[in-house]
Design brief:
Aminopeptidase, Alpha-Beta Plaits, 2 domains, nine-stranded mixed beta sheet, four-stranded antiparallel beta sheet, 11 helices, elongated, binds zinc ion
Length: 420
């Protein structure tokens, strides 16, 4: 027997309520939902369900999910989605695991997600150890926590026979970390569910934070190349290592705004074969970031110009003898942007937190929400509860003390955002 609950919440604006009333509705949605008996019962049940969430978290974490090799963990999620009765359970072309929980109508369409991949290479020992409430293992918080919370949200909705006005699609994404370059969520928005996502939530890591500022990044591998030769015998030709030095000096002097925070870093350099050889190649890897897309675009353009200037100067210095070439390869591109702090989706996340006695931090970061935000789809990334340390390290931990509140907040937010 399904029980329908209806709260009027216009998150996309312009339909039946103006932006002010949508905001006001969102600002109290968590508290109002908790006054509904079915919702209250579901939240209470989640407190007792938390040991199961922890079990799932450990079980999923002990299945390796290195970058670009998320299949085994993905298969475990597919089976879990199926066992929970989600509809149209499938794995898309890039490996995202997708399952739908239909509401009264297809829209609004909420995607509720967490990511499958870790930063740890193949062969990493992924056994999880426990000491009281503290779990320790690579990926235990980032993002096995999110995956386990996703399953708990579905369980709570099923147990409470909660029917939502809109449809929720649960997704375990691939490629959130590093060189994965958000390929899972990019495929989701650009192909798999193109034009059919109205709101987006990513549950990522431990803690109580709400992230609505998406830090964008632009990453390059750059190589200067030339004929190379003997350091004495061939002297007088353009030198790739020297060109690289010119480029780095130029980058070091780039001007960026302090607000919005915009950064650049030459992270790795290399090349050459011996001290008495003119290198035939010198390379670097560069990372640039900003929470403001315009600032990132401007920095990107200034960086590329610096490379061209370095190339021209080194070639001219030697009268174009042993002319160099320049290769620029984009190895990462994440758009930046922000959902305004007073946007309904952020207000709903704050309200859900308050309703459960959580005082959230407001964060900025680079997560699956970046893609949603860059496309103008309201999105937040929320922490999954508990406390974590050492993300991206082998000594990563998750402290489950009171972590059920994080699960319950995710549940409340999912229900809130599936309202009209
Ligand atoms: Zn993560």
């Amino acid at each position: 027997m399904k029980r329908a609950i209806f709260f009027v919440l216009v998150l996309t604006g312009g339909l039946s309520a103006g932006p002010v009333s949508a905001q006001q509705a969102a600002a109290t949605i968590g508290e109002r939902l908790l006054q509904d008996a079915a919702i209250k019962a579901a939240v209470d049940a989640l407190r007792d369900d938390e040991p199961q969430v922890i079990e799932d978290q450990v079980r999923l974490c002990e299945i390796p999910a290195p970058p670009f090799k998320e299949q085994a963990r993905g298969e475990a999620l597919r089976q879990a989605f199926q066992a929970l009765g989600l509809k149209n359970v499938r794995i898309d072309a890039v490996g995202n695991v997708i399952g739908e929980r239909p509401g009264a109508a297809p829209r609004p369409s909420l995607v509720f997600s967490a990511h499958l991949d870790t930063v740890f290479p193949e062969g990493t020992n992924v056994r999880v150890s426990r000491s009281g409430p503290v779990l320790k293992g690579p990926g235990i918080s980032d993002d096995c926590r999110g995956l386990a919370v996703l399953l708990a949200v579905v369980r709570a909705m099923n147990r409470g026979a909660i029917e939502t006005p809109g449809t929720i699609t649960f997704v375990a994404t691939v490629g959130e970390e590093g060189l994965g370059d958000l390929r899972g969520v990019k495929n989701l928005f650009n192909i798999e569910m193109k034009g059919r996502i109205d709101r987006f939530v990513s549950v990522d890591g431990a803690g109580s934070g709400i992230t609505h500022v998406a830090v964008g990044s632009s990453r390059y591998r750059v190589a200067f190349k030339g004929p190379g030769g003997h350091s004495y015998g061939a002297f007088g030709i353009a030198n790739p290592a020297h060109a690289l030095g010119r480029a780095i000096a130029g980058i070091a002097d780039l001007q960026v705004p302090r607000q919005p925070k915009t950064t650049f870093n030459v992270g790795r350099i290399g090349g050459g074969t011996s001290v008495n050889s003119i290198a035939f190649e010198a390379w670097m890897e560069v990372d640039m970031r900003s929470s403001d897309q315009a600032a990132l675009t401007a920095l990107d353009a200034a960086f590329l110009k610096t490379l061209d200037v370095a190339l021209a100067e080194e070639n001219e210095r030697w009268g174009n003898k042993g002319r160099l070439t320049l290769e620029k390869t984009i190895v990462g591109s994440r758009p930046g942007g922000a959902v305004p702090a007073d946007a309904p989706i952020v207000q709903a996340a704050l309200s859900a937190s308050r309703a459960l006695g959580i005082t959230p931090t407001i964060d900025e970061g680079s997560t699956d929400s970046n893609i949603a935000i860059s496309l103008g789809v309201p999105a937040v990334t929320i922490d999954g509860g508990g406390e974590g340390t050492g993300a991206h390290s082998l000594a990563e931990t998750f402290d489950a003390t009171g972590s059920w509140r994080g699960t319950a907040r995710a549940f409340l937010l999912a229900v809130a955002l599936a309202q009209r």
